Amino acid sequence: xxxxSKWRLAPALYGFIATFFIANAALADDAPKVRFTxxxxxxxxxxxxDKAPKTVENFLQYVRDKHYDGxxxxxxxxxxxxxxGGFDGKFVERKSRAPVAHEGREALSRGGPKNxxxxxxxxxxxxxxxxxxxxFINVRDNAFLDPTLIPPGDPVPKFEYQGRVYENTPRAxxxxxxxxxxxxxxxxxxSGMDVxxxxxxxxxxxxxxxxxxxxxxxxxxxxxxxxx
Length: 228
Description:
The protein has three domains: 1-30; 32-147 and 182-226, Beta Barrel (Cyclophilin), CATH 2.40.100.10; 148-180, no CATH class. 26% of the residues lie in helices and 32% in strands. The chain is built from five helices and twelve strands.
């Protein structure tokens, strides 16, 4: 290929690059969005059904059912995350549906976001498959909450975790290890992050059944509305 032919290919290459970025922008525009109106202000999240379809549909159904309206951010830890969606202002727990299957690894393997500042993830108990309605927003990069992808092979020839190397480990042992599931990230804040920052900085203490991390002045979710 001579020098001239390289330059003749350039417009096609630029066209491909432009198409790629336009397509990705279109995908971002198509992401469902939910507006949270709170006593601290408004913020909007977008969610990714192509990354975590069951988790997103679960979340959006709670939005449609008005489950989040009148709930509070009951757990707020500056330099970590803010959590809500489960209790009303009197600390009465909202009734929820059956838990949704954990999709953290699938979402991550599909190019979904990690637990970084501004991302939206499902809260759960120590059981990875226990997430229902509660969610949290990361207010710092929390890599230790990320799901761990399991290398191919059975047994897995080599696996490293927290500085330790495991060799020839049965794949099922790793897939089912609770500490490797992490938390499913399924969206992110796209506007109003200043409101989330305001929430994370609110003074906290004991409240209701919780011994700590409860805002001293309640942060109420007036409404969560699907805007797209």
